[in-house]
């Protein structure tokens, strides 16, 4: 059997790079070959697994400079049944890819919003005349470059090499230590690893409402490695809280904490335990 791995496309995205790393891991783990399955958005990538159209999906979740990839968190909450199997971190170095002979001839820069944000200072300094256009992925506009020599795309050097496109400037990220964390998700239960991710909503908007769930973790000496709030989209000031914990669901303290969190919160969703590839 061939395992399918959904990712954000077209080919050459950072997520595709993460998906190739994931495919290597899957081949070793299950002794099965993998096929990559590109999707036009992160939401469609995750939906692909939820609809049984792909076995695994690889999605970006957090960048060291720009923070959370919010669509990933929102979709995980919404789709409900996806479980995180592994995490991996990749270094991100952006290139400006363009047929323009010099930077002053670039009038438009296209990329994924995270890539545009990660190169904001460089762009304002070196290409101040250019308008920025946010697209679904770093590679979405690469096929249009030959017809639009005044256009630039922020994507990886790997993408430029893949399509034999000219790199006008590299690296262009504002911070050299730029890295992104990706999750590998599927519908299989996942209870083992170094970390567990979950999210909850609260019963009430009252003093100490968040303290009670956090106290449950503190009482069991469970360390938090991340906490993030996302709007529920129901009303202003109403949030879901996303937590990453150290420890896995096979450990008794994590199990009892999850049980207690179920009682202390309105809705609790557990996204599984996982290790780093
Ligand atoms: O568009 C891509 O290439 C992606 O994989 C999303 C992304 C964008 C910027 C940094 C990391 C991931």
From TrEMBL:
The residue ranges of the Prephenate dehydratase domain are 4-187
Task: Print the keywords alphabetically.
Answer: Amino-acid biosynthesis, Aromatic amino acid biosynthesis, Lyase, Phenylalanine biosynthesis
Q: Which reaction does it catalyse?
A: prephenate + H(+) = 3-phenylpyruvate + CO2 + H2O
A GO BP term here is:
L-phenylalanine biosynthetic process
Pfam families per UniProt? ACT, PDT
Q: Which GO terms describe its molecular function?
A: prephenate dehydratase activity
Keyword Lyase part of the UniProt annotation: yes
ACT domain residues: 198-275
What are the record's GO terms for cellular component?
cytoplasm
Instruction: Enumerate the PANTHER family for this protein.
Output: PREPHENATE DEHYDRATASE P PROTEIN (PTHR21022), PREPHENATE DEHYDRATASE-RELATED (PTHR21022:SF19)
This protein's pathway reads: Amino-acid biosynthesis; L-phenylalanine biosynthesis; phenylpyruvate from prephenate: step 1/1
Top enzyme class: lyase
What EC designation does it have?
4.2.1.51
**Which protein, by its recorded name, is this?**
Prephenate dehydratase
